[in-house]
Specification:
two-stranded parallel sheet; disordered N terminus; 66% helix; Outer membrane efflux proteins (OEP); single chain; alpha+beta; 426 residues
Length: 426
C-alpha cells in the first residue's frame, strides 16, 4: 500500500489546496488545529473517558476489598448493663468487653474465588476503558474530517455562485446589446437562485458541524477552532493487519476472554457454600463478676475451631453449579460472536478503504477535464459558438465533479479512521 500514499499525495494540488486554505484561515482569528491536536483535546475533555476511568478505579478498589476477606478479622463486642431492680449488696451495673480475632481457614474456595473474580473484573474494566478511548478518538477524527469537508464544500459553493454571477454579467451585457433573447437571462437567473439556495444550505451544514466540532472538545462558542488540514489533502494509508494482530489489539475481545475466566471462577463460587467451612479464632473477655458485689473484674481467654459441613440441601449445590456453568457457556459463545463480528468489521473496513481510494482516484481524474470543459464552454459562449444551456451544463458538471471529489476524499479519510477504530490502532 505504500504506492497508494504516493498517489494520494500527488492529488493534494487542487483548487482546494493547502495554500488556499492557509490564506482563508489567515484572514480570521480562528485557531487552526491538526488532527492530532484536536484528538488530544477531545480525549482530554471527554466525559465518557472520565466515567470509564472512574469505573476502572472502582473495580481496582473492589479487588483490594475482596482480598481483605482472606485476612484475619478483628472485632470487638462490648456490653453495659443496668438492673432496674437493685438487690441487697449487688451493684446494678455490670459490663463486659470481648475482642475476637477470626481467621477463615477454608470456606470452600469462596474467598479466593471472590478475590480472583474481582481481579479479573479490574482487568475487564481496564479493557473497557481502552475501548472507550478508541471510540472517542474515532469520534474526534470523524468530527474533524466532516468539518473539513463542510468547509471545503462551502468554499466550493461560494466559488460556484461567483462563477454564475460572472456569467450573469456577461449575459446581461449581451442582452442589453440585443445579442441574445430574454430566455437566456431567465435561465441564468434561475441557476443563480438555485446556487444561492445551495449556498445557504452549505453554510447551515458548516455551522452545524462546527458546533459539534467545538463541543466535543469543550468549547461552547460556534467559532474559535477549525481544522488545519483540508479534506482534499493526503490520507495516510494504513498497512493491513492480520486477524491475530487485530484480536490481540481489540480490548473488547480481550475483555470477552476475561469474562470467560470470570464465569469459570463463578462456577467455583457457586459450589463453595455447599463445601465444608473451617474457621479458627482467639478471643478474650473482660467483664465484671456475676453478680457484681464489689466491682471486681475477670479476664478470660478462649481459642476455638469451628467446622460447618453441609449435608443435604435437596440438590441445591448441583443446581447452583449448573446455573453457573450455563453462564460460562453463554460468555464463551458471546466471545465467539464478537470474534465473528470483528472479522466482518475488519473486512468491511478494509474494503471501504480500497473502494474509497478507487473513487477518489477516478474523481480526481475528472477534475481537470471538468475545469477545462468549463473554461472552453465559457469562452465559446462569449464567442457566440455555444448556447447558454451548454455553459450552464458545463458549470453544473464542474460542480458535480468537485462535489464527488470532496465526498470521495471525505469517505477515504473516514474509512482510514474507521479501520483504525476496528483494529484499535488509533
Amino acid at each position: 500500500m505504500k504506492h497508494l500514499t504516493t498517489i494520494i499525495s500527488l492529488v493534494c494540488i487542487t483548487a482546494f489546496g493547502a495554500q488556499a486554505l492557509a490564506q482563508e484561515l489567515s484572514k480570521s482569528n480562528q485557531t487552526q488545529l491538526s488532527t492530532e491536536e484536536y484528538r488530544d483535546a477531545v480525549l482530554a475533555y471527554s466525559h465518557e473517558l472520565r466515567i470509564a476511568r472512574a469505573t476502572t478505579l472502582s473495580a481496582e478498589e473492589q479487588m483490594r476489598l475482596s482480598r481483605t476477606g482472606m485476612l484475619p478479622q478483628l472485632d470487638a463486642a462490648g456490653r453495659f448493663n443496668f438492673d432496674m431492680r437493685q438487690l441487697d449488696g449487688v451493684e446494678p451495673f455490670s459490663f463486659s468487653l470481648q475482642p475476637l480475632v477470626v481467621q477463615t481457614i477454608y470456606a470452600g474456595g469462596a474467598r479466593r474465588a471472590a478475590y480472583e473474580s474481582a481481579r479479573v473484573g479490574a482487568d475487564v474494566a481496564l479493557c473497557e476503558e481502552f475501548f472507550s478511548y478508541v471510540e472517542v478518538a474515532y469520534a474526534a477524527e470523524y468530527a474533524y474530517w466532516n468539518l473539513a469537508a463542510a468547509r471545503d464544500r462551502l468554499r466550493l459553493t461560494r466559488q460556484y455562485v461567483e462563477i454564475i454571477r460572472s456569467l450573469k454579467r456577461v449575459v446581461d451585457a449581451r442582452f442589453e446589446n440585443g445579442y441574445i433573447s430574454r430566455s437566456d437571462v431567465l435561465m441564468t437567473d434561475t441557476r443563480l437562485s438555485e446556487a444561492e439556495y445551495g449556498l445557504v444550505a452549505a453554510e447551515q451544514l458548516y455551522q452545524t458541524t462546527l458546533h459539534n466540532f467545538n463541543i466535543l472538545m469543550g468549547v461552547e462558542q460556534a467559532v474559535g477552532n477549525v481544522p488545519r488540514d483540508s479534506v482534499m489533502c493526503a490520507a495516510e494509508m494504513p498497512e493491513r493487519m492480520s486477524l491475530d494482530e487485530v484480536f490481540d489489539r481489540r480490548s473488547d475481545y480481550v475483555a470477552s476472554q476475561l469474562r470467560i475466566d470470570q464465569a469459570s471462577i463463578a462456577v467455583r463460587s457457586a459450589r463453595a457454600p455447599y463445601l465444608p467451612q473451617i474457621a479458627a479464632g482467639v478471643g478474650g473477655v473482660w467483664q465484671t463478676r456475676s453478680p457484681n458485689h464489689d466491682w471486681h473484674t475477670t479476664i478470660n481467654g478462649s481459642v476455638y475451631l469451628s467446622i460447618d459441613v453441609p449435608i443435604f440441601h435437596w440438590g441445591a449445590r448441583r443446581r447452583a453449579e449448573s446455573i453457573a456453568r450455563k453462564n460460562l457457556d453463554a460468555r464463551h459463545w458471546e466471545s465467539e460472536q464478537l470474534r465473528d463480528q470483528i472479522i466482518r468489521d475488519e473486512t468491511d473496513a478494509w474494503s471501504a478503504i480500497t473502494n474509497s481510494l478507487s473513487q477518489w482516484q477516478s474523481s480526481f481524474r475528472n477534475l481537470a477535464i471538468a475545469r477545462e470543459n468549463l473554461a472552453l464552454s465559457t469562452y465559446s459562449y462569449n464567442e457566440g459558438e455555444l448556447t447558454i444551456l451548454d455553459v450552464l451544463s458545463a458549470q453544473l458538471s464542474w460542480l458535480q465533479v468537485y462535489e464527488n471529489a470532496l465526498q470521495a476524499a471525505l469517505n477515504l479519510h473516514l474509512a482510514v479512521a474507521d479501520y483504525g477504530r476496528v483494529t484499535s490502532s488509533q
